[in-house]
Amino acid sequence: MRSQGIGIAVALLLQMMAWAETEPTQARPPNIVFILADDLGMQDVGFMGSTYFETPNLDALAKESLVFNQAYMYPTCSPSRAALLTGKQSFRTGCYTVPVLERGTSKDNIFSRWTVGLEHPVYAQPLNDAGYKLIHLGKWHIVGPRPDQETELPFDKKLRQPGNSDLSWLAAHQTPEIQQYYPTGKGFHENVGGTWWGDPARGYKKGYADPSGGYIAPFKNPFIADKEGDGWLTDRLTADAIDFIERHKEEPFFVNLHHYAPHRPSVPRNEKLIAHFMKKAADPVTGPGAGAPKKKKEMAAYATMVKALDENVKRITDYLDQAGLRDNTILIFTSDNGFNGGQSANERLRGAKGYVYEGGLRVPALVNWPKKVAPGRSDVPIQGLDYFPTFLQLAGITDYTGTLDGTSLVPLLHGKPLKERALFWHIASTYKNPPCSIIRKGDWKLIQFLKNGNIELYNLSQDLKESRNLAATHPEIAQALLKQLTTWHRDNQAPLPPSSQLHRE
Q1: CB under 8 Å to 56, separation ≥6 — which residues?
Q2: Which residues in 368-394 are b (16+ Cβ under 10 Å) and which e?
Q3: Contact in structure between 100 and 91 (CB atoms under 8 Å)
Q4: I need a labelling partner for 53 at 20 to 30 A (CA). Which of 76, 285, 288, 485 fits?
């Protein structure tokens, strides 16, 4: 009897081995590491032309990557991150700008929401359902300090934030009710440092005036537990990212590494580095490194923070190489908007963070996937909205039914063209510019201001600086783009501020 049982078991084992040989093996989906810098200008990296900022590791990575020469985001961090994480335009989430930056009244603005509602999934949720292990590290910024105040739009008054070092909000944010708006309530398994803060200086009574600026330990972020050996925030977030990968390397992982750096305050990485940049010649094309001593010193401090980002990207790629994970890991590096004020300069572009011109909207962007994505450069315009559908396609998720306003970039990654399209922005709150909507199609960009309907038209291939408004000299192009923008508004029922003279039925 015993020998008979052994014989049956052997037969079953042989049959299972035969099935394994004949059944197709499903490939493990790729790991994804998404590194987002905060307020890093498009021209503030070597691979996009800078001679002042030093990013040798990113430059080397770019030579092995697909670099997007025309990558766009929203011009400020909250709407940019809301669009990125949800794949939805601002009029769907109600995030038009950072609420505390709004200017004007409720007559001329639709005051912006801060908290992305529970009805809007982020890309972590379908990836979680597909079996990915996910971590968010760093800046979150799509939950407000008081979500209970963000009810029905439009608001009568803009939202406000607690003062520096004020933790009166913390107890409420640790409850299950508000944790729903946090990374771990939105599909991520772990959260390191993600809260409502736009910059790490919030934990310090002096804020920006504190010498650490939140970048030097102790970090005073209640969602970053202090660790022995803590030094620089960018280093710490990278270390925690690597630790997470090490713990989950046997299964598909998604690392959402959204650095606070190099957002203001501009804190020198060390005195030796800032002395190096203070002595360095200014970039003759883009302008960083020039100006009065005070301005030059802030640029130099910012340059040390950019260099720290660069070094930490290499820490990630070195670990992936050593762990044998690189070939099945997609690494994306980009920024959330243009540079912040005096931290850099833009001699080739108009505007900076907050502006609806190229200096506020354009960001550096690359995708690296050894042996899968051919190195090169693409002039196809892309947008932050495109990453959500890209992640879905990379992960093999075909049953997602939520609304997405972007387009998967996977064809571009494989050397195939995208269907021609226009890019749109709807910015219904005042910050650096009055409320407006934008359409970018081909070489052309049209801005329509929502109060009076005035338009600006630029040919970006001939005038990247946006110095010549061509609306009067090219009326046929202006009207064609305006018609498409108007149709987009109407089809999506994008709301207009109360004082708007436009009528779109």
Answers
A1: 46, 310
A2: bbbeebeeeebeebbbbbbbbbbbbeb
A3: no
A4: 76
CA atoms of 210 and 199, how far apart (whole Å): 13
Q: Give dist(CA 248, CA 21) in Å, integer.
A: 28
Per-residue pLDDT of the chain (505 residues; tens, 9 = 90+): 444 444 544 444 444 444 344 333 458 999 999 999 999 999 999 999 999 999 999 999 999 999 999 999 999 999 999 999 999 999 999 999 999 999 999 999 999 999 999 999 999 999 999 999 999 999 999 999 999 999 888 898 899 999 999 999 999 999 999 999 999 999 999 999 999 999 999 999 999 999 999 999 999 999 999 999 999 999 999 999 999 999 999 999 999 999 999 999 999 999 999 999 999 999 999 999 999 999 999 999 999 999 999 999 999 999 999 999 999 999 999 999 999 989 999 889 999 999 999 999 999 999 999 999 999 999 999 999 999 999 999 999 999 999 999 999 999 999 999 999 999 999 999 999 999 999 999 999 999 999 999 999 999 999 999 999 999 999 999 999 999 999 999 999 999 999 999 976 5
- Residue 447 in contact with residue 427, Cβ under 8 Å? no
- Is the separation of the CB atoms in 233 and 251 below 8 Å? no
Ordered strands of the 382-383 beta sheet: 362-363, 71-72, 382-383
**Stretch (H or E) spanning 143:** none
Q: Alpha-carbon distance 440 to 420, whole Å?
A: 11
Residue 338 near residue 351, CB atoms below 8 Å = yes
State the pTM of this model.
0.94
| 257 Cα distance to chain centroid | 10
How does strand 436-441 pair with strand 444-449? Answer: antiparallel
Q: In the chain, what are the domain boundaries?
A: 31-101+115-419, 434-492
- Tell me the CATH number for domain 31-101+115-419: 3.40.720.10
> Among the CATH numbers 3.40.1390.10, 3.40.50.720, 3.30.1120.10, 2.60.40.3450, which is that of 434-492?
3.30.1120.10
